[in-house]
Amino acid sequence: GVGTLIVLGETLSVADLAIFASVTAFKCGILEFVDRNVLDAYPKIKGVYDSVSTLPKVVEWYKKHPIKTFY
Asked: pLDDT digit string (tens) for 46-59?
């Protein structure tokens, strides 16, 4: 859940959502020539992604709008 891996302060911010959206794009394969898991090598970025991805509203959104992959 949300906690110490949030970028600014202790509450969800636009920065957290921007990181989540960017990592999601990479994981979808938006850039064919970049490995989908390239950002997994960065634990803080991965931590923000993991934290945001477990938020109930985010889980609910992706149940209704599944992520599409590009390749």
From this structure: 999 999 999 999 99
